[in-house]
Amino acid sequence: MKFIFDRDTWQEIFGSIKKSKLRTAITIIGVLWGIFLFITLLGAARGMENGFDREFQNLATNSIFLWSQRTSMPHKGFQRGRWHSLKIQDVDAIKKQVPEIAFVAPRNVKGVFGDSPATVKRNTNSKTYKLFGDYPILDNVNKVKLIDGRFLNVNDIEKEKKVAIIGEKVVDELFESDEEVVGNYVEINGSFFQVVGIYKERTGGSFESDDSIYIPFTTYRRINNMGDNIGWMVIAAYPEADILQVEKDVKTVMRRRHSVHPDDERAFGSFNFGEMFKRITGFVKGIKFLTWFVGIATLVAGVIAIGSILLITVKERTNEIGIRRALGATPGNVKGMIVLESIFLTLIAGILGFIFAGGVLMLINSSTQNIDFPFTNPTVNIPIAVGAILALVIFGSLIGMIPAQRAVKIRPIEALREE
Prior knowledge:
Radius of gyration: 34 Å
Low-confidence stretches: none
Strand order of the largest sheet: 4-5-10-7-9-8
Number of helices: 13
Largest sheet: 6 strands, mixed, barrel
Shape: elongated
Strand content: 15-25%
Mean pLDDT: 82
Distance between the termini: 32 Å
Structural class: alpha+beta
């Protein structure tokens, strides 16, 4: 190991590099490109993963949206094309008969499925907004980000209170900037509601934005004469549950309760968010696997290029190596110098590639901050980056053994004959 810190050893290594500057530069660029591509692709994959996590962080990912539609088959004396509505009683029935279900949130809305939105007034201001009738359980399956105040509670439901949680856009359009919003009143379709909370804009599969209003489900039902009808429901299963099977079981229960033919697939519409989320996560995992494959393959190709360059260098330095051997250089000294040159080149290329990749990821992150795309914070864990550089150095030392072994096989007398 003494030769590593020997000045003459490094002078010979740098002298060898100077003799073939272009070849050395091309070799370094090849390895640099490998580590650059590996780090950049891995960071981009992480940015995409973080983006989807951000988009769906407020939703129970193993969930289903369910609503009623017209029947497509006659059954028990009912004609095909019959319209039927979901009932509030369906909620308890589903929970009891499908044990994999964690939460069910029945919902009603105005202003989403083709019906007119609610008219909301505040003093002389009048606007139309989406109006949701919800239970507090919604916060468990579709998280509401509150800025001020509170969300709905059980007391609001039981007493059919006229309270409302409004979005930021509603606040901006109906209230003055210096007004106290929480505790004040707004008029919704002719009835006055007290504002008890303000929420911020939501992302990731929600019907709501910051121009929506929540009121208690029971209050919504009374003022709109809904009876036991509900618009749709969000059903969240336990994380380990098979969401496709849960969807089938729920529809089976609903067909039985609503006198729908067992084979009628159109009587109930659904959107399996859990299945979609699994596909998205599978896509991200595929991208990460492809990143690792392409990155490692590129790294190996770059290291092999270094080995090839060193083989050429050894052939060009045959005469020099012969002289060194004749003057008493041991095979270990010759082999160590070749391997050390390989390690040095791979280390320099790896560090430069890491620096350039970090700069590109920072540039990508800053340029995607204000766009509506699931991509955020494209980073690579330091242990992974350091591990990649260490692996590169190890590969470089191993590949350097090939030209080093060839160098020590050169017999001094034969090397001195070569011109």
